[in-house]
Amino acid sequence: MTATGIGAPVRRKEDQRFVTGQGRYVDDFNRPGQAYAYFLRSPHAHAIIRSIDTGPAMIMPGVIAVFTGDDLAADKIGGLICGWMIHSKDGSPMKAGPHPALAQGKVRYVGDHVAVVIAETLAQAKDAAEAIVVDYDVLPAVVDPAQATKASAQVHDVSPDNTVFNWHLGNKDEAEAAFARAKHITTIDLVNNRLVPNPIEPRAAVGEYDPGTDNYTLYTTSQNPHVARLVLSAFIGVAPEHKLRVIAPDVGGGFGSKIFIYAEETVCVWAAKKVKRPVKWTSDRTEAFLSDAHGRDHVTHAEMATDENGRIIGLRVHTVANLGAYLSTFSSSVPTYLYAPLLSGQYDIPAIYCEVDAVYTNTAPVDAYRGAGRPEATYVLERLVEKTARELGQDPAEFRRKNYITQFPHATPVIMTYDTGDYAASLDKALELADYKNFQQRKQESARRGKLRGIGFSSYIEACGIAPSQAVGSLGAGVGLWESAEVRVNPTGSVEVLTGSHSHGQGHETTFAQLVSDRLGIPIDQVSIVHGDTDKVQFGMGTYGSRSGAVGMSAIAKALDKVIAKGKKVAAHVLEASEGDIEFKDGRFGVAGTDRSMAFGEIALQAYIAHKFSGQDLEPGLKEGAFYDPTNFTFPAGVHICEVEIDPDTGVTKIERWTAVDDFGVIINPMIVEGQVHGGIAQGVGQALLEGAVYDQSGQLITASFNDYCMPRAIDLPSFQVGMTVTPCPSNPLGIKGCGEAGAIAAPPAVINAITDALGHEDIAMPATPQAVWRAAQKARMPMAAE
Amino acid sequence: MYAFEYHRPTSVKEAASLAGGAEDAKFLAGGHTLLPTMKLRLAGPANLIDLGQIAELRGIERSGSAVTIGAMMKHAEVATSAEVKEAIPALAEMAELIGDPHVRNRGTIGGSIANNDPSADYPAACLALNATIVTNQRKVAADDFFQGIFTTALEEGEIITRVSFPIPSQAAYAKFRNPASRYALVGVFVAKHADGVRVAVTGAGSNGVFRVPEMEKALSGSFTPDALNGIAVPQDRMNSDIHADAAYRAHLVGVMARRAVQAAAARG
Question: Distance between CA atoms of A127 and A57, rounded to whole angstroms?
Answer without folding.
Answer: 8
